[in-house]
Amino acid sequence: MPVTQEDHMQKNTVAQESPVLGSHDVVVVGAGISGLTAAELLVQRGLDVLVLEARDRVGGRTEGGRFASGTPIELGGQWVGPTQDEVLALAARLGLQTFTVHDDGASLLFADDERREGSDDTFGLGEESAAAFLEVLRLIDTTAAGLDLERPWLSPDAAALDRITAAQWLREHCADDGARDFTDTMLASIFAAESDEYSALHMLFYLGSGGGLHRMMTTIGGAQESRILGGTHQLSEGLARTLGDRVVLGTEVLGVTGWNAASSAEGAHHAEEAGEPARPVRVHTSAGDHEASAVVVALPPVMASRLHYEPALPANRDIALSHMTAGNVLKFQVEYEEPFWRAEGLSGTVLSLDHHVSLVYDNCVPDSERGILVAFVEGRHARAFNELGEVDRARLVLADLAQFFGERAGWPTEVLQRNWSEESFTRGCYGGRFATGLWTTVGKDLARRSGAISWAGAETATVWNGYIDGAIRSGQRAAREVCDALGL
Amino acid sequence: MPVTQEDHMQKNTVAQESPVLGSHDVVVVGAGISGLTAAELLVQRGLDVLVLEARDRVGGRTEGGRFASGTPIELGGQWVGPTQDEVLALAARLGLQTFTVHDDGASLLFADDERREGSDDTFGLGEESAAAFLEVLRLIDTTAAGLDLERPWLSPDAAALDRITAAQWLREHCADDGARDFTDTMLASIFAAESDEYSALHMLFYLGSGGGLHRMMTTIGGAQESRILGGTHQLSEGLARTLGDRVVLGTEVLGVTGWNAASSAEGAHHAEEAGEPARPVRVHTSAGDHEASAVVVALPPVMASRLHYEPALPANRDIALSHMTAGNVLKFQVEYEEPFWRAEGLSGTVLSLDHHVSLVYDNCVPDSERGILVAFVEGRHARAFNELGEVDRARLVLADLAQFFGERAGWPTEVLQRNWSEESFTRGCYGGRFATGLWTTVGKDLARRSGAISWAGAETATVWNGYIDGAIRSGQRAAREVCDALGL
Predict the structure, then answer these.
(1) Domain co-membership, B330 together with B320
(2) What is the pLDDT of residues B436-477, one digit of tens each?
(3) Which of B14, B386, B437 sits opposite A315 (nearest CB)?
(4) Residues A340, A341, A342, A345: is their CA dihedral positive or negative?
(5) What is the pLDDT of residue A14?
(6) Is residue A338 in some structural domain?
């Protein structure tokens, strides 16, 4: 007969008695920018906060890199732009400088085996398709502007929009093949997923949260306008500095137990005021547990879904976390002796419907004379690249760049690459997506507090969802929730 | 400055040195029917096998229950039918008896606020819609029959079929609203998900794996033809009996490390033959590790994705696991003093497009005079039910049953319910689904061996995918893979 573990060894769940390493008001799981933001605010309110991070670095989906030439470069999220007020304010507060990206010259579009040059939003798309694109762009942005970003499931036509994919919505609203393919690729570069992989409601919500597709797709005046000198990872490093040894790296959180007791977080706090210690929640790591009155889980949803929760999370909470699937993207930072494309009147911006690389930007930095291009392989192209080794990936990217910019682009001084789908504590970028049917059934659960757990992370933001700015806002919201729960 | 865990405590990952509890040829993770099948075959080949199960019972998505009246009833998977040769053979081998379900009388269809009676596949659908349904049924089954079930991504038109949802495919191939809504509900009762939540390729593959929609939707001659006297959980219990104390319950597996070393599984085996012990893989539980030469992970894909793997799984393997999302269903077993509907000429079968309950069957058993109905709440209805407590769920189901069968159906002797989305080691039923774009990009990774890990479970089957029969076949395949790897 089968035996139970108890028969010959100790009961074997993460709820078992593990050593208690410490007791805190709040444990924050994840030292990405959302978790660090929440932690800083909670510390400012006088709370005892511990931040646990699995990696040996802070910053989550932002990460610093450096070319052999010495130039620092971003391996993760890198741009900031107007209306991203929270990230701009944080950068200013930390004394970080921003600089405007290089955007002079013609952009290139590769579609239907043709190369086109353009200098406006339509990248040299043919006249008819350009008009159709501008029309659908306007329609997307007016529709997105009509959504309830706090509660997308209550938006006009939410049910109908959630039942069709973004691709279907596009097909219904744009008859021009060229414009549709162009929009599709533009969307792939924003979602790192194909337009048939998320619902129309998700598309409109996500774009709406950033002020529309036009703002999201543009450099100057839009989401790719500026960068932070030295890299965006400095945002997290700056926050981590103020938190000091409250941030513990190299510690993988395995589970959260007793989270439901904290109807409870209030009770715990009051108990403490009365001099009775009561930390109902346990955050489990394989080295031992930390106790807390409240927990902020500041992980990408899919990562959050992989923790062990006792009791089990409610079904819709589990569905919301596990079904907010991450995009797939590989980012290549390619350094050359000089930005040779500029001399040819090119901006460095490329959108291609025909290549592995779907998007390229000039990514030069002010403190280097070198030329730098950043190239993205996204969505289904990324899943194809997942099958290859790094050498082949770089080879294919350089071949694409050579087709875009001529042979010289095939001879860089260095290629840095990061495949975010391979990062075991991220498992995909940029943000997450909801496929059809999810926003209207479990969308309300995505950011809703669960007992003593607040959920942070860019996917839970209602403004600039999926962006650094949204991550900060989500951390602020989580901190407010915790303060409310603790009666502060 | 942030500190690393090493600064003040031991390195904190599941790869750390944990006590080794035992060393085996093969560790099987999960004592559902696929894992137990694999284990039995491997033991028969003379291997030392350990099966680790998180729950205090075997059987996975099959589970035995019992009414207060003493009648045993299934809380999980319950039907078997023709062409499900593996499960029928297993039942016979274990000496379990099957019985044919009750299917005499008229079936009911509720659609567009109308009640219809019928006795064929169309449930009394209006003449025009009935013809349209039979036409689309034929088209689905001929198209599904043309798929390459072993490699759906290589099927004719795979790319196009994977880019649209099943709902889109239906819309393109069935102009009759009534027939389409009827098909949609039929599909919801098979997938426990709405037809816009999976790709057309997935629909066709899944239906094809069971021999077509017609076979899957029918009772007599189809997937709901027979049941096992006493319940399907006895299949797993029978297998577990033969495995004896090789099955350890109450042991949650947290991770698998060193799985890649086992290019390796062969090497390990050869090393052993040479007298050198070498078990490169570690299966981690919070009570300690088990070493093995090969591992069979026999969990639903989403559960498998939540284990910790070191090194991290390849990106497409992770995507395949985490994106094969589980359906959502609540199952209600409702017992009455007698099967009163039979006297009214009703079969007990109901399909409703208008109610929380989408599907009902007569579920009486031969050794009781009581009347039993089984009612399912599926897909978006299930996600709505997730918000309610058990009392409200039962109340709503009984109200639906009373609408179907009259007031008497509101007065059962007992209601047993199971919400599979709330089960922390299952997180959804019946099977999993791939949304658009996944079969053609990561489908090949779903069942493909990863280093020393073979993947089993109903979602990896090519015949009767998602069914008990498929689970058995997947366990057989996994066992073959392990034997091949170990050179047996």
Answers:
(1) no
(2) 999 999 999 999 999 999 999 999 999 999 999 999 999 999
(3) B386
(4) positive
(5) 47
(6) yes
Residue ranges, chain A, pLDDT below 50: 5-15, 263-264, 276
pLDDT greater than 90 at residue B1: no
pLDDT of residue A1: 54
**The total number of structural domains that make up chain B:** 3
Q: Are B39 and B49 in contact (CB under 8 A)?
A: yes
CA B13 – CA B19 distance, rounded (Å) = 14
Residues A191-205: tens digit of each pLDDT: 999 999 999 999 999
Q: What is the pLDDT of residues B222-231, one digit of tens each?
A: 999 999 999 9
pLDDT higher than 60, residue B301: yes
The answer as to whether A120 is a domain residue is no
Distance to chain B for A323, nearest Cα, Å: 7
pLDDT for res A425: 95
* Structure token digits, residue A158: 């939410």
Question: How far is A288 from chain B, CA to nearest CA, in Å?
Answer: 9
Does the distance separating the beta carbons of A323 and B437 come in below 8 Å? no
Query: Per the structure block, which two tokens stand in for B266?
Result: 């062969």
Closest B-chain CA to A3: B248
Question: Which residues on chain A are in Cβ contact (under 8 Å) with B251?
Answer: 5, 12
CA distance B438 to chain A (A): 9
Residue A287 has a pLDDT of 85
Q: Give the mutation candidate from A3, A5, A331 for the B interface (greatest B CB count, under 10 A).
A: A5
To test the contact with chain B by mutation, choose from A319, A381, A429, A438 the residue with the greatest count of B C-beta atoms within 10 A, namely A319
CA pseudo-torsion sign B231, B232, B233, B239: positive
**CB pair distance less than 8 Å for B1 and A240:** yes
Tell if the CB–CB gap between A9 and B240 is shorter than 8 Å: no
Q: Identify which of A53, A196, A309 has the shortest CB distance to residue B164.
A: A196
**Res A8: pLDDT:** 41
Whether residue A249 and residue B3 make contact (CB cut-off 8 A), yes or no, is yes
| Residue-averaged pLDDT of chain A | 93
| Chain A CB contacts of B18 below 8 Å | 286
pLDDT digits (tens, 9 = 90+) for B232-262: 999 999 999 999 999 999 999 999 999 997 5
pTM: predicted TM-score of the whole model, two decimal places:
0.94
Q: How far is B21 from chain A (nearest CA, A)?
A: 10
Assigned token pair, A174: 């744009």
CB contact under 8 A, B424 and A251: no
What pLDDT, on the 0 to 100 scale, is given for residue A286? 81
Structure tokens at B437: 């774009």
How far is the CA of A296 from the CAs of A20, A242, B249, B388, in angstroms? 19, 18, 32, 26
Comparing A270 with B62, which gets the higher pLDDT? Answer: B62
Residue A119 in domain: no
Tell me, what CATH number does B163's domain have? 1.10.405.10
A2/B58 touch (CB, cutoff 8 Å), yes or no: yes
> Does the beta-carbon distance from B167 to A163 stay under 8 Å?
yes
> Which amino acid, residue B214?
H
pLDDT for B279 equals 73
CA-based nearest residue to B460, from B309, B301, B303, B308: B301
- For A190, phi then psi, to 5°, come to -95, -40
Cα–Cα dist B451/B444, whole Å: 15
Strand, coil or helix: B365: coil
Cβ distance of A3 and B163 shorter than 8 Å? no
Q: Assess whether B438 and B309 both reside in one domain.
A: yes
Q: Which residue of A has its CA nearest to B389?
A: A314
- B210 lies in some domain: yes
More confident residue, B8 or B74: B74
Q: Counting Cβ atoms within 10 Å, is residue B444 exposed (0-12), middle (13-18) or buried (19+)? A: middle
* Residues of chain B contacting residue A240, judged by C-beta atoms under 8 Å apart: 1-2
Containing structural domain, residue A11: 5-60+235-324+433-485
